[in-house]
UniProtKB/TrEMBL annotation:
CDD domains in the cross-refs: SIS_PGI_1 (cd05015), SIS_PGI_2 (cd05016)
Catalytic activity reported: alpha-D-glucose 6-phosphate = beta-D-fructose 6-phosphate
Family classification: Belongs to the GPI family.
Cellular component terms (Gene Ontology): cytosol
EC number: 5.3.1.9
GO BP field: gluconeogenesis; glucose 6-phosphate metabolic process; glycolytic process
Organism: Winogradskyella psychrotolerans RS-3
Name used for this protein in its record: Glucose-6-phosphate isomerase
Entry annotated with the keyword Protein biosynthesis: no
Compartments (UniProt record): Cytoplasm
Main location: cytoplasm
Listed pathway(s): Carbohydrate biosynthesis; gluconeogenesis; Carbohydrate degradation; glycolysis; D-glyceraldehyde 3-phosphate and glycerone phosphate from D-glucose: step 2/4
Keyword line: Cytoplasm, Gluconeogenesis, Glycolysis, Isomerase
Length: 548
């Protein structure tokens, strides 16, 4: 059954939210706290090892009720069932969206075309487990009899960002293997990665759902050619494996069937790290940690599927985006983890969120008359405080920000962790409270400035505050808690798409540039070209050709 397709702006709840917005828009968060002693408790959700404090957002409990009314009018509950049950909710590509099935237990049942997909998922998981064991233990030997020391993941987009982010984020849990990632078609990228590698002790994992992606196939071909400069053809089977849905093309590339880890077309690239695409994660961390990551995601799935919307972390989080995006007209959201380990987290989420919800046609095929996907950006704190926080504090734009912090650090240096977390707490407080004229004046008093100098300086030192933040406080960064966190954002993406009445699981927008690049490439390879371009592109091509 198809998803409901209603323009959200035509719902009753939207009208009520619009009216409610008029009463909220100029209220200061400080006043909202002063007016309601229970606010911090009422707008906080405690679930498992997650403490999600939404109270520093520019909402009241009434706002949340109205946003939930909007979700109900958009049939969110029904959409969630369809999502988990394998309905064809990726209608433009005619596919189910079942990354959730990848982390379901063995006894679950999820049907696609009348077939329960869970047994096959667990067969692939078993294959990943066995292969991981043989590589990590050293049982699997390279062609010359040496154990594998290095793993190179060759893939791009969802076939790179998820595994790369997870391996980097969980490096504390890594084994002895060194993991590398090659993604960009820029030849310098793969050259830099292979320059210090020994082909005799390296395993290459080619990851491409379609096995047609130019970047991945070019890198795989070039790396195989480099490998064959020193190794014989028969060594390929010991050093190259692949993950794909396109088994025939992988075989045509020269990879043995037993070295292929299959995936299904109902796994979207940007949601695929839970599938065989996560092979590099399993190799880098060991299968048990990979499984814990999946278990964590499954726990979040259950929370999302069953919790009342008022207590549902992904639902509230998504509704807040709608609130800021469509009523406050905020254009971007920042995601700031207070752990260096999550250095790649915002980059990873950029694909998930922006490739999914960067759409301007609704589920009825009509052009939308409201804003959809938000811009996502961020870097770990405290580094980001010394880079772009000035703009969040005193710039002209409203940037709702997620602060992700951990109660415990991994190495347990309490002194550093307290310093890190004091910044986490201080920033959300500063963003909310700002600094009034009176506060600035009393601060300046102590600096023996003249009256004139004080008045001149005053406006620059005042902070309006009232900047919204969500504080996620998690006990500890573990494979399981990271699984929960990633799944939380995945479900947030889904909810936003349902409310905005768009299809979140296709990505036709990235196709046009790819097609053009293909035809320009053939022009670059020929001496003359009859192709017609605009004057700017024509000049750029001519300049490139003359000078390269
Ligand atoms: O950028 C478009 C895209 O299709 C992504 O959605 C996907 O993750 C990436 O290309 C890589 O695709 P593949 O895994 O098929 O090589």
């Amino acid at each position: 059954m198809a998803l409901k397709a209603t323009n959200p702006t035509t719902t009753n709840a939207w009208g009520k939210l619009q009216a409610h917005f008029e009463t909220i828009k100029s209220q200061h968060l400080k006043d909202l706290f002063n007016d309601d002693a229970e606010r911090a408790n009422d707008l906080t959700v405690k679930w498992d090892d997650f403490y999600a404090d939404f109270s520093k957002n520019r909402i009241t409990t009434e706002t949340l009720d109205l946003l939930i009314e909007l979700a109900n009018e958009q049939d969110l509950k029904d959409a969630i069932s369809k999502y988990f049950e394998g309905d064809i909710i990726n209608a433009t590509e005619g596919r189910a969206v079942l990354h959730t099935a990848l982390r379901s237990p063995k006894d679950a049942t999820v049907f696609v075309d009348g077939e329960n997909v869970i047994p096959e998922i667990h067969e692939v998981k078993k294959k990943i487990e066995n292969f991981t064991y043989s590589i990590v233990s050293g049982d699997h030997k390279g062609h010359t009899g040496k154990a594998i020391t290095d793993v190179v993941n060759i893939g791009i987009g969802g076939s790179d960002l998820g595994p790369a982010m997870v391996v980097d984020s969980l490096q504390y849990y890594k084994n002895q293997l060194t993991t590398h990632f090659v993604s960009n078609v820029d030849g310098d990228h793969y050259q830099e990665v292979i320059k210090n590698l020994n082909p005799e002790t390296t395993l290459f994992v080619i990851v491409s759902k379609t096995f047609t992606t130019q970047e991945t196939l070019s890198n795989a071909n070039s790396i195989r050619a480099w490998f064959l400069e020193s190794q014989p053809q028969e060594a390929v089977s010991k050093h190259f494996v692949a993950v794909s849905t396109n088994i025939e093309s992988v075989k045509a590339f020269g990879i043995d069937e037993e070295n292929i880890f299959p995936m299904k077309d109902w796994v979207g690239g940007r949601f695929s790290l839970w599938s065989a695409v996560g092979l590099s994660i399993s190799l880098a961390l060991g299968y048990k940690h990979f499984e814990s990551l999946l278990d964590g995601a499954h726990k979040m799935d259950e929370h999302f599927r069953t919790a009342d919307f008022k207590e549902n972390i992904p639902v509230i989080s998504a509704l807040l985006t709608v609130w800021y995006n469509n009523f406050f007209k905020a254009e971007s959201e920042a995601i700031i983890p207070y752990t260096q380990y999550l250095n790649q987290f915002a980059t990873y989420l950029q694909q998930g969120i922006m490739e999914s919800n960067g759409k301007s046609v609704d589920r009825s095929g009509e052009k939308v008359n409201y804003q959809t996907g938000t811009l996502i950006w961020g870097e770990p704190g405290t580094n980001s405080q010394h880079a772009f926080f000035q703009l969040i504090h005193q710039g002209t734009k409203l940037i709702p920000t997620d602060f992700i912090g951990y109660v415990e650090s991994l190495y347990g240096n309490k002194d550093h962790h307290d310093k890190l977390m004091s910044n986490y707490f201080a920033q959300t407080e500063a963003l909310m409270n700002g600094k009034t004229e009176a506060e600035v004046l009393s601060e300046l008093k102590g600096q023996s400035l003249s009256q004139d100098a004080t008045s001149e300086l005053l406006p620059f030192k005042v902070f309006e505050g009232n900047k919204p933040t969500t504080s996620l406080l998690i006990q500890k960064l573990t494979p399981e808690s990271l699984g929960k966190l990633i799944a939380m954002y995945e479900h947030k993406i889904f909810v936003q798409g349902i409310i905005w009445n768009i299809y979140s699981y296709d990505q036709f927008g990235v196709e046009l540039g790819k097609q053009l690049a293909k035809s320009i490439l053939s022009e670059l390879k020929e001496e003359d070209s009859a192709a017609i371009h605009d004057a700017s592109t024509q000049n750029l091509l001519a300049f490139y050709k003359e000078n390269c």
